[in-house]
Amino acid sequence: MHDTIEGIQDAGVIASVKHFIGNEQEVNRNPITPSAVSGGIGGATIGGGAQSINISQTIESLSTNIDDKTMHELYLWPFQDAVHAGAGSVMCSYQRINNSYGCHNQKVCLSRRKNVLLLAHNLSSPRC
Questions:
Q1: Which tens digits make up the pLDDT trace of 66-86?
Q2: What three-state secondary structure class fits 17?
Q3: Buried b vs exposed e over 49-76: b needs ≥16 C-beta within 10 Å?
Q4: How far apart are CA 53 and CA 37, in angstroms?
Q5: CA pair distance 9, 117, nearest whole angstrom
Q6: N or C: which end of the chain has fewer CB within 10 A?
Q7: pLDDT tens digits, residue range 100-113?
Q8: What DSSP string describes 91-106?
């Protein structure tokens, strides 16, 4: 990992480590809102035919629920390795972590990022 990050940054590009942390699901990783899909008054229709559903409220994204010990001992190591290799920024995950969106999760963004990884780097949103 060190060689990859060093090579990227030697080319004049900031290496960004993605997606911090628990970004392990591609399906339903983003919320679905009635305004984001087509539909009429009172809701929106997703899909077509027999599998279409009508929504009138936001459907939250999935939540990856990870206890502190598992997060520290299993999930943080790749990020810690990347930071120690000199990565210039970290991008938070799309979906929720312990029922709070990755970029809004105070425990993940502040405590884990600063105390465990000792990061003074940028933490960016995947929406930028």
A1: 998 998 888 888 888 888 888
A2: strand
A3: eeeeeebeeeeebbebebeeeebeeebb
A4: 11
A5: 20
A6: C
A7: 888 888 777 776 65
A8: EE-SSEETTEEGGG-H
